[in-house]
Amino acid sequence: MTPPVETQPERTALAWQRTGLGVLAVAGLLGHRALHTDRPAMLVAAGLAALLGLAVLGALAPLRNRQVQRRVAHGSAVCDPWAARAATGVVVLTALAAAAAVALV
């Protein structure tokens, strides 16, 4: 008898939601700073970060959640390289936007 696979798909969904909310929080901070320093270029960075966060929350998180649920139901591995690359890309792009905003001031 093989031991059951211990996966927690809910944790995966929550992790993607936290990533999206974190990106939105950075976008809000960038927007706040842009308004107080009167820098319209920072507003563009804030808007792009906000769109990225919304894309994570509205598209990537639900897609990944369905994928994990499906894989758990079929008993296959839930890891996926594209998901790791997508999350890394989102975090790196957000960090670059924040670093650019700090460097502009």
DSSP E strands, number:
0
Order of helices and strands: HHH
Query: Strand percentage, roughly?
Result: under 5%
**Helix run count:** 3
Rg, Å, rounded: 17 Å
> What form results from the Cα inertia axes?
elongated
Helix content range: over 70%
Taking the sheet with the most strands, its summary is: none
Cα-to-Cα separation, first versus last residue: 62 Å
Brief summary of the model shown:
With 105 residues, the protein is an all-alpha fold.
Overall description:
The model has no long low-confidence stretch (mean pLDDT 84). The protein is an all-alpha fold and 105 residues long. The chain is built from 3 helices and no strands. The protein is 84% helix and 0% strand. The protein has one domain (10-104).
List keywords for this structure.
84% helix
Topology, pairings included?
Blueprint: H1 9-37, H2 40-74, H3 81-104
Helix pairs in contact: 1-2, 1-3, 2-3
